[in-house]
Write a structure and sequence with these properties.
The structure holds two protein chains of two kinds. Chain A contains eleven helices and no strands. By secondary structure, chain A is mainly α. The relative contact order of chain A is 0.08. The longest helix of chain B has 44 residues, at 60-103. Classes of the chains: A mainly alpha, B mainly alpha. At the A-B interface, helix 1, helix 4, helix 5, helix 8 and helix 9 of A face helix 1 and helix 2 of B.
Chain lengths: 210, 151
């Protein structure tokens, strides 16, 4: 049981479970984006290259989406949509931006659109959208209200969407401000200010939860 | 690694008295999810592409139904246009006649009717006192000589 729990956490912590991935894909994972893009443009290697791209980036994109929408089911649907969009538009991708930054941007837009839709639905049914996310968090399998990391998650969910996005990109994904600026189309100064506000708010909220 | 150090320094400078926990999201992910996911996406892509190509090439039956539908719609449109033309022309002619009649003065109509009316339409003709005896006798003689009277 302990071992199973450790494995689950390992997956949850974005560690690549190399022992599960077939060796054929390991070779693909080593290749850089440039080669993958060239292979994607050739019809005979298109699918293999795209599968390699999914293997390479799925976990990072998964966690970016999951931290925003909380539920695994919603994340799964959104991640599939993101990769279908990437498949449809990768042929036109101009290499003046990094592939991953571009993919991150697609995932971010998909998340924000989804949350906006949920907000509208919540308004129609007179529910509070933030309450909905908090409820989803509490329904998580390993949720423990006493643990500080869950308190942190609860606090993060109380931030406005864009501030939450900035906090997640900086704190969890350790993204430099310059890259964040490319993903979100906002100036580095504005992002820094947003992140600082978010950090202070989270610290204050976690203290009230203790 | 440098970025991570910068982030930790940034956090401790912003909130010096706060303990930031380990970055463990703790969220549950079904076992083997990431192994199955790429195939799931590829299946979705294949499905969508197959759907799109089917949409682009409609079946023969659909094509035939579509052709007859188009033909029926075209026939209806042609009938409506032809009927419209005939009715329109009739109405136009009627309107034009009314217009022409309206432009003729009452005097002109009276003059026309006087010209067109017969010899016996005039009031003086019916006044028998205006006919001389000689003319009257000649008329009676002429009438009595006809075969019809004799018979």
């Amino acid at each position: 049981m302990k071992y199973y729990f450790a494995c689950e956490l390992q997956t949850a912590n974005c560690y690549l479970s190399f022992y599960r991935i077939p060796i054929i894909f390991m070779a693909f994972m080593e290749k850089n984006d440039q080669i993958l893009l060239e292979q994607f443009r050739r019809p005979e290697t298109r699918e293999a290259a795209f599968t390699a791209i999914i293997h390479k980036y799925q976990e990072r994109l998964y966690w970016q989406i999951r931290r925003m929408v909380v539920s695994h089911e919603d994340t799964n649907d959104l991640l599939q949509n993101v990769f279908i969009k990437i498949w449809n538009h990768l042929g036109n991708f101009r290499e003046d931006a990094q592939l991953f930054t571009w993919m991150y941007r697609i995932a971010t837009n998909e998340c924000l659109t989804f949350l906006e839709k949920q907000k509208k639905q919540a308004r129609i049914s007179l529910n509070d959208e933030d309450e909905g996310l908090a409820e989803k968090l509490k329904a998580e399998k390993y949720f423990d209200a006493k643990k500080v990391e869950w308190k942190l998650q609860q606090a993060v969910l109380q931030l406005p969407e864009k501030q939450r996005l900035v906090f997640n990109l900086r704190y969890y994904d350790e993204m430099p401000y310059a890259e964040m600026s490319e993903v979100l189309g906002t100036s580095e100064g504005a992002l820094k200010a947003s992140y600082h506000h978010a950090v202070k708010k989270i610290a204050a909220i976690v203290k009230t939860l203790e | 690694m440098k970025e991570d150090k910068d982030i930790r320094e940034e956090l401790s400078s912003l909130t010096p008295d706060f303990f930031w926990p380990e970055k463990m999201p703790g969220y549950h992910v079904p076992a083997g999810y990431f192994n199955r996911f790429p195939q799931k996406v590829m299946d979705q892509i294949h499905k969508k592409e197959a759907g799109q190509s089917l949409e682009k090439q409609p079946s023969k039956v659909h094509k035939e139904v579509f052709f007859w539908k188009k033909l029926a719609i075209a026939a209806c449109v042609a009938i409506v246009v032809a009927l419209g033309g005939v009715i329109g022309q009739h109405l136009y002619q009627q309107k034009m006649m009314e217009k022409q009649l309206a432009s003729i003065s009452n005097n002109a109509i009276e003059t026309y009717l006087n010209i067109q009316s017969g010899l016996f339409d005039g009031a003086p003709i019916y006044n028998i006192s205006n006919i001389s005896d000689k003319d009257l006798k000649a008329l009676v003689k002429e009438v009595s000589n006809t075969e019809f009277i004799r018979e």
